[in-house]
């Protein structure tokens, strides 16, 4: 049984619900016979992948839906063998270069060259190009992006690249200027609610409007997450109880408690306790920057007006350190200790 | 499938099968980047850069050309100029055998300089085309020369001098400081200025007209402004934009251009600026969250907000300086890959505090 998110994913451009202006543009592009390189960006859960898949279907017809997973071995210049999973159809191929770590350049070059040098043979298709979809393009190393820049121009004849990324900030500008930028904004709360109602109707359940709004709001306007939460809530209890709080993921609940602990007491003993909790979350593979961000947002909400800028500043400062540093726990702990000291001083000044 | 069917001229998908040949030809035509298609063909076509053109025209008459070093920001016509010059000099056919062009995408380590460049440099000059000036030397173009290693540049020194009788070199780079001194002193330096706005606009309009892209008032201006003097980028954007309106009956307008090249609309920037004056930080948070949800790239927002703040009449010099400092720190953090939401929130809160302090 597939998850609702997958089961009710719109497969064609016509079935997409929100951003109708963007959808029209994409349809025009797909039907104009020629597709430029695309760079699709926007927050997670806004429907980037869904749109890419829909565009491919519009361009190549239903054949683009027949996906197969294959495994390919690439060899690095230092003779190391890399095994990479590829998802492909007759018309396109999807890669996620973050699997490759520092060797992403090799993969990009080999793969794109190989595709570019083989002509499209399927006679049924009216297009003479294939498409390479690169997911998480912001994780591509600079080297790989520079390699892309050259290949994108050289093999324009029979290959197109679609990059999918959460922000354009980490894509080098020569690559950006070769692509058509497509921004996919997060859906508004109403739009999330609409989609939830559509899914609920298909599943034959009813969602009270107030509950749907609550879910949409606590999903941070992330459609993917909202639908997962809806399904989770359905599995837990149906019919929905309107007064019921939408369930947060367990780790988020746990982190909130950690943040709360820092507000309650500011002692070395408390710091030790918090440290244990942080370790606990880290060992469950929650990304460190997500932990820090969740804590910070919760703290900013809890402290008084005068302290908010200070907490925001410290959070930004330690999150930056976290990115440049090696060991996550050090920076998480430093942030908590800093917050405690700032908060305690504030309390003492107030008293 | 009917291969011999008469090609139809309209391009609906039904006719795609019948008129495949015609369609293919049209495809290939459309796939050529306009940047290549509208590269100046001869030296009189070149927009702006009067001094350089004047000197080069003189050298065409006297058939005497020094070694050249072109430098300047991207998209100002460095490569176009030298290509146009060679065409005027040798004619399109002979230019193929008389010119060696190497750019950064080719391998250009010391071994290539030693073998490829040297072999070419010392080869005898080929047959000239009598219809063109065809001076008795060949030209080696080293595009993006600032990315050559120091060793490779050093290896060039002697080659340039030794074969100067039959070979002239043209080095092209963005930063003249990355060319080693001995190499730079062997060449005549030409600086390429950023294109003046009106000339860039005229050029883009010209391309748009030839490609029959309909543009509303201000669209071309927006294209040029976004490209900041880089004509290649402006024309690239124009081509992408044209694909967007192609087939439909819409015309290009300034807002569409802004969306295409990834510029944040000024209304969003204004709302950020307005939030600085808000009394509580709740407003700041909403505005930042909204920004993140909309998917605008933080670095772009920061750059535009910086421009906006620096021209702000309500802020004093000291305030502006402080805000610039905050923005610089945040920009560095963003560049290191820090979280966009936290960084923006921090920047907004600090800036707001500075803006409100008298």
TrEMBL record, chain A:
GO BP term, example: DNA repair
Cellular component annotations (GO), alphabetically ordered: Ctf18 RFC-like complex; DNA replication factor C complex; Elg1 RFC-like complex; Rad17 RFC-like complex
InterPro entries: DNA_pol3_clamp-load_cplx_C, DNA_Rep/Repair_Clamp_Loader, P-loop_NTPase
A Pfam entry, by short name: RFC_C
UniProt-annotated location(s): Nucleus
Keywords (A to Z) from UniProt: DNA replication, Nucleus
Keyword Transcription: no
CDD domains per record: AAA (cd00009)
GO MF annotation: an example: DNA binding
Family statement drawn from the similarity comment of this UniProt entry: Belongs to the activator 1 small subunits family.
The protein's name in its UniProt record: Replication factor C subunit 5
Species of the source: Coemansia spiralis
Encoding gene (name): RFC5
UniProtKB/TrEMBL annotation, chain B:
Location(s), subcellular: Nucleus
GO molecular function: ATP binding; ATP hydrolysis activity; DNA binding; DNA clamp loader activity
Pfam families: AAA, Rep_fac_C
Classification via InterPro entries: AAA+_ATPase, ATPase_AAA_core, DNA_pol3_clamp-load_cplx_C, DNA_Rep/Repair_Clamp_Loader, P-loop_NTPase, Rep_factorC_C, RFC_lid
GO cellular component: DNA replication factor C complex; Elg1 RFC-like complex; nucleus
Record-linked CDD domains: AAA, HLD_clamp_RFC
Domain annotation AAA+ ATPase: ranges: 64-196
Positions of transmembrane segments: none
Keywords: ATP-binding, DNA replication, Nucleotide-binding, Nucleus
Stated name of the protein: Replication factor C subunit 2
The organism of origin for this protein: Coemansia spiralis
Native organism taxonomy: Eukaryota, Fungi, Fungi incertae sedis, Zoopagomycota, Kickxellomycotina
Gene that this sequence comes from: RFC2
């Amino acid at each position: 049984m597939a998850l609702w998110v997958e089961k009710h994913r719109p497969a064609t451009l016509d079935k997409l619900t929100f951003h109708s202006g963007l959808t029209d543009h994409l349809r025009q592009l797909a039907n104009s016979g020629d597709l430029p390189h695309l760079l699709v960006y926007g927050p997670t859960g806004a429907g980037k992948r869904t749109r890419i898949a829909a565009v491919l279907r519009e361009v190549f017809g239903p054949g683009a839906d027949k996906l197969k997973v294959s495994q390919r071995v690439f060899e690095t210049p230092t003779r190391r063998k890399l095994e990479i999973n590829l998802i492909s159809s007759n018309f396109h191929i999807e890669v996620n270069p973050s699997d490759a770590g520092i060797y992403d350049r090799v993969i990009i070059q080999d793969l794109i060259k190989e595709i570019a040098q083989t002509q499209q043979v399927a006679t049924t298709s009216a297009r003479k190009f294939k498409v390479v979809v690169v997911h998480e393009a912001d994780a591509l190393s600079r080297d790989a992006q520079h390699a892309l820049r050259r290949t994108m121009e050289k093999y324009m004849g029979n290959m197109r690249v679609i990059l999918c990324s959460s922000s354009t900030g980490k894509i080098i500008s020569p690559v950006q200027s070769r692509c058509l930028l497509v921004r996919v904004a997060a859906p508004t709360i109403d739009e999330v609610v609409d989609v939830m109602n559509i899914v609920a109707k298909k599943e034959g359940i009813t969602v009270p409007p107030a509950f749907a709004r609550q879910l949409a709001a606590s999903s941070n306007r992330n459609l993917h997450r909202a639908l997962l939460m809806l399904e989770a809530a359905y599995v837990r209890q149906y019919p929905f109880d309107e007064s019921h709080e939408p369930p947060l993921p367990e780790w988020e609940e746990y982190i909130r408690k950690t943040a709360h602990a820092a507000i309650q007491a500011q002692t070395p003993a408390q710091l030790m306790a918090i440290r244990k909790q942080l370790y606990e979350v880290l060992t469950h593979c929650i990304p460190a920057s997500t932990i820090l961000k969740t804590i910070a947002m919760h703290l900013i909400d809890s402290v008084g007006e005068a302290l908010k800028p200070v907490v925001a500043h410290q959070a930004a400062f330690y999150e930056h350190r976290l990115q440049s540093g090696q060991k996550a726990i050090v920076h998480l702990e430093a942030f908590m200790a800093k917050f405690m000291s700032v908060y305690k001083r504030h309390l003492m000044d107030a008293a | 499938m009917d291969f011999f069917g008469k090609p139809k001229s309209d391009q609906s998908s039904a006719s795609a099968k019948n008129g495949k040949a015609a369609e293919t030809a049209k495809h290939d035509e459309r796939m050529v980047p306009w940047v290549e298609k509208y590269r100046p063909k001869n030296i009189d076509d070149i927009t702006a850069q009067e001094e350089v053109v004047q000197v080069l025209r003189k050298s065409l008459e006297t058939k005497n050309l020094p070694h050249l070093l072109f430098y300047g920001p991207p998209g100002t016509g460095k490569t176009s100029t030298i290509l146009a010059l060679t065409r005027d000099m040798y004619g399109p056919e002979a230019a193929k055998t008389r010119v060696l062009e190497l750019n950064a995408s080719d391998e250009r380590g010391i071994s290539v300089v030693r073998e490829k460049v040297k072999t070419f440099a010392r080869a005898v000059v080929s047959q000239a085309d009598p219809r063109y000036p065809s001076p008795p030397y060949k030209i080696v173009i080293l595009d993006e020369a600032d990315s050559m290693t120091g060793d490779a540049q050093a290896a060039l020194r002697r080659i340039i001098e030794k074969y100067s009788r039959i070979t002239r070199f043209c080095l092209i780079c963005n930063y003249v400081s990355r060319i080693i001194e001995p190499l730079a002193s062997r060449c005549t330096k030409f600086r390429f200025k950023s294109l003046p706005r009106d000339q860039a606009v005229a050029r883009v309009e010209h391309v748009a007209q030839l490609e029959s892209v309909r543009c509303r008032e201000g669209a071309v201006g927006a294209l040029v402004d976004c490209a900041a003097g880089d004509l290649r980028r402006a024309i690239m954007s124009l081509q992408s934009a044209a694909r967007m309106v192609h087939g439909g009956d819409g015309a290009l307008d300034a807002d569409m251009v802004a969306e295409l090249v990834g510029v944040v609309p000024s209304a969003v920037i204004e709302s950020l600026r307005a939030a600085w004056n808000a009394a509580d930080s709740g407003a700041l948070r909403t505005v930042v969250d909204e920004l993140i949800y909309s998917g605008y790239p933080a670095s772009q927002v920061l750059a535009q907000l910086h421009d906006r703040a620096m021209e702000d009449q309500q802020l004093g010099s000291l305030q502006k300086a402080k805000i610039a400092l905050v923005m610089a720190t945040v920009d560095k953090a963003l560049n290191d890959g820090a979280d966009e939401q936290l960084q923006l929130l921090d920047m907004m809160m600090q800036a707001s505090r500075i803006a409100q302090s008298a």
